[in-house]
Specification:
The protein is mainly alpha-helical. About 60% of the residues lie in helices and about 0% in strands. The structure holds protoporphyrin IX containing FE (HEM). Protoporphyrin IX containing FE binds next to helix 1, helix 6, helix 7 and helix 9.
């Protein structure tokens, strides 16, 4: 079953972790790392409206560097059976980020990566075909994150910073109309992915490391 034919049954993640498989385990075992990223000082300030459109634009600038690497590295995993059910070009963000940044900065050059973003990029560049579960973890983190919290970030950027509708492509997934069934199908793909127990443990360790890198990226944007 691929995420493309997303006819998801009832959400297995409605708090009944015991009832389901690897997806629920990933969610449970990375929840703390997720919350630590979600509630980093920069993100709390951004979502509360305590920053400005420049801060929001700076975040997108760093994300562009990240997604360019992630989406370039993806080609190493195109034949990995572990990822066959989730790789989907509709998820890619680099082009949407480029368009939003051009709109928000009148085509100004993209700011260079911060040291924290450079470290995150290095981790992604280091992903090798022998370890598809590590790439899978970053794919899950970034894209399920953008299909979740990302929608919140987009909404609040409009409300607090007057970001124009024309500069919200980063959070709009062309061709994926209904996000919840898509996310549920992604979780089902996680449950049925041919990952060994060792690979599942490595996936969770890499996802936790990814959340920490995401939090550090946010903190790297804080103006002292
Ligand atoms: C920035 C503030 C953030 C907010 C407000 C937020 C909010 C949320 C919410 C509400 C969900 C649950 C969605 C659902 O049940 O379908 C969620 C899930 C998720 N978020 Fe976040 N999030 C944030 C940051 C992040 C970051 C930085 C990442 C990754 C780098 C991330 C990755 C994820 C992932 C992978 C899921 C799916 C969990 C699962 O169902 O397995 N989030 N987020």
């Amino acid at each position: 079953m691929t995420t493309a034919d997303a006819a998801a049954p009832a959400d297995p993640l409605s708090g009944d972790e015991a009832a389901s498989g690897f997806a629920a385990r990933v969610r449970t075992e990375t929840q703390e790392a997720h919350d630590s990223a979600e509630h980093s000082a920069f993100m709390d300030d951004l979502l509360a409206g305590r920053l400005d459109a420049q801060a929001y634009t700076a975040l997108l600038g760093q994300y562009l560097h990240l997604y360019r690497v992630l989406e370039a590295v993806e080609s190493r995993f195109e034949s990995a059976p572990e990822l066959a059910a989730v790789l989907d070009p509709r998820l890619h963000r680099a082009a949407a980020l480029e368009q939003d940044l051009a709109a928000l900065t009148d085509g100004a050059p993209v700011t260079p990566p911060t040291p924290e973003t450079a470290e995150y990029m290095a981790r992604l560049s280091d992903l090798q075909p022998e370890e598809p579960e590590r790439f899978f973890a970053h794919h899950y983190l970034r894209y399920l994150g953008d299909l979740s919290g990302g929608q919140v970030i987009g909404r609040l950027a409009v409300r607090h910073y007057g970001i124009p509708e024309t500069a919200l492509r980063t959070w709009r997934f062309e061709g994926i109309e209904r996000l919840k069934p898509y996310k549920d199908a992604y979780r089902q793909a996680l449950d049925s992915a041919p990952l060994s127990a060792r690979q599942q443990d490595a996936f969770i360790a890499e996802a936790s490391a990814g959340f920490t890198l995401a939090r550090d990226l946010f903190e790297g944007l804080r103006q002292e």
